[in-house]
Amino acid sequence: MTRAFLVVLDSVGIGGAPDAASFFNDVRPDTGANTLLHIAEACASGHAETGRSGPLTLPNLDRLGLGAALACASGQGAPGLGAPPEGRWGAATEISPGKDTPSGHWELAGLPVPWDWHYFPLEVPAFPAEVIARVSELAGTDGILGACHGSGTVMLDRFGAEHLRTVRPICYTSADSVFQIAAHEESFGLERLLALCEGIAPMLHEMRVGRVIARPFVGQEGAFRRTANRRDYAIAPPMPVLTDWVQRAGQPVIGVGKIGDIFSMRGIDRVLKGEDAVLMDHLDTLADTAPEGALVFANLVEFDSLWGHRRDVAGYARALEWFDARLGTFLPRLRPGDLLCLTADHGNDPTWHGTDHTRERVPVLVAGCGTGPVGHVAFADVAASVAAHLGVTATGPGRSFL
Ligand SMILES: O=P(O)(O)O[C@H]1O[C@H](CO)[C@@H](O)[C@H]1O
Ligand SMILES: [Mn+2]
Ligand SMILES: [Mn+2]
């Protein structure tokens, strides 16, 4: 038996989604959004010089086929990318009616989302009166703050000080099907925030809101900072997915990062959390220690949360170059017969208008099973391929490309 490492680089899209015109940022369609291409172009033209310099340099990812995957997805070449691939490479297209993290991960795990998520309107208050009343009751406050669409860091700038004064939790949403609650870890209390999110989640899941997200923060006015104690309370997948298939076959499933949250812990034996640098340390250790037959399923969220949503091109480029360097030392740790599949769950083009995800195709880069194109595949084919590698039975629409 062999092991599989499935690593989702959150939001590292490569353009070309055929249905991008049906997805929006600030009421403008995502047509033409291309996270990786636009970062590479900004770097090549000297517009991403903060904390780094020059063309985007991703030798390890490109050697696996990143540039080739980008050309496959969108028909465009990116400056600095396009070396002859040594891995298996292709581009995956999503069919779920959402460009959010659970939609992307569920479909990568073999289950296209079988329903329409509930999205909150742009008007204020964006939430129904009964939701606001129940949140206030659970929080023990005389109301909530926000109740609008917003970017998390901007919400703290706008409402953080008032939250410290009134204790009211800051509630907001985005183009995703989410209900986010920000509260100060010390003055409101982390445990109180987590209990509030857990308490309100069933009501929102009933409405087909995909996730309630706890957004704890620390610091004082003008210097608020979100912490790594974020926690997602997601609807459980309505059908068995990759993690269930592997667990039911008696093989270990280890979630790294927010995988446990995204799948509501379904099919997951063990979770390892932390900032992305810590998660890469965990992956290094798991390459040395994960048992035969194991599925290691990881999500690296900071491309998305620290740089994509913040529309910070240089920061995103730095994160990609950092990951590429870590990949260079991770790859030699793999054993003969191991499979590494790198992919993404949606785009988040930092050059795009708005602050939300962008509908894009994603790369599929596979090390450990030869060289050559897999071409255009479906998100669900990733699950079928990983299952085939691990020798477990897959259900659902995916077909293995291995
Ligand atoms: O702006 P922040 O709080 O990072 O929120 C972002 O994170 C949410 C979940 O990933 C997305 O729906 C987006 O709104
Ligand atoms: Mn995501
Ligand atoms: Mn996001």
Automatic annotation (TrEMBL):
Catalyzed chemical reaction(s): 2-deoxy-alpha-D-ribose 1-phosphate = 2-deoxy-D-ribose 5-phosphate; alpha-D-ribose 1-phosphate = D-ribose 5-phosphate
Record has Cytoplasm as a keyword: yes
Compartments it resides in: Cytoplasm
Residue ranges occupied by any Metalloenzyme domain in the UniProt entry: 3-392
Gene Ontology MF terms: magnesium ion binding; manganese ion binding; phosphopentomutase activity
Catalytic activity, EC: 5.4.2.7
Binding site for Mn(2+) 1: 10, 345-346
Record PANTHER family: PHOSPHOPENTOMUTASE
Name of the molecule in the record: Phosphopentomutase
Organism field: Roseivivax isoporae LMG 25204
Lineage, broadest ranks: Bacteria, Pseudomonadati, Pseudomonadota, Alphaproteobacteria, Rhodobacterales
Gene name for this UniProt entry: deoB
